[in-house]
Amino acid sequence: MNDVAPADRPESWQVHGTEDIWRGAAPFAVRSDRISAPARPDEHFGRLVLEHPGAVAVLAVDDRDRVLVLEQYRHPAGTRFVELPAGLLDVAGEDPLVTAQRELREEAGLVAQRWTHLMSTYPSPGLSSERIEIYLAEDVSETDDRGGFVLEHEEADMTTAWVPVGELLEGVLAGRLTEGPLALAVLLYTHQDRHRAAR
């Protein structure tokens, strides 16, 4: 072990060929790449890649230290998750913060005066290029302007609630709350909050 702090670093292995498995109107695609490691350039092997535009998630905290959460059914996992307001980065060139502000307004009917970028995370880099930007929204208030957004499909069945941060932290640590961005945001927020209090 060396004394250098661990950090992710950009790297690109040679691609010898690509085949589209599925590509349609949705902002996703699945392809198969033939790649090789730099130390073994003659050893080619396949890797599936889910092309993903990225996403945002919002930890909206009110002045009573409660978080706005959603409950939403997710078919691939067969689970109704407790989640944060979130959405895809599917508008070309849009700043992720603008996307986060829109998603909070559309899904939760909230606007916020203070925004802080908490972290970026790749939830499944062995398969997907998805990168999620997680934001903290504070000084929140309700709005009737959802920008014409219409809840449909799973979102039409979505419910919302304000839950104390401490209850969410207990749920994450006990394994009752397992949705990735929610767990990461709550852990990071409570860690930072305790760090500030200890100063």
UniProtKB/TrEMBL annotation:
Superkingdom classification of source: Bacteria
Claim: Cell cycle is one of the keywords in the record: no
One example GO MF annotation: hydrolase activity
Gene3D superfamilies xrefs: Nucleoside Triphosphate Pyrophosphohydrolase
Signal peptide start and end residues: none
Ranges for domain Nudix hydrolase: 50-190
InterPro entries referenced in this protein's UniProt entry, alphabetically: NUDIX_hydrolase-like_dom_sf, NUDIX_hydrolase_dom
UniProt keyword list: Hydrolase
Protein name, as recorded: NUDIX hydrolase
Protein's organism: Nocardioides jiangsuensis
Species classification: Bacteria, Bacillati, Actinomycetota, Actinomycetes, Propionibacteriales
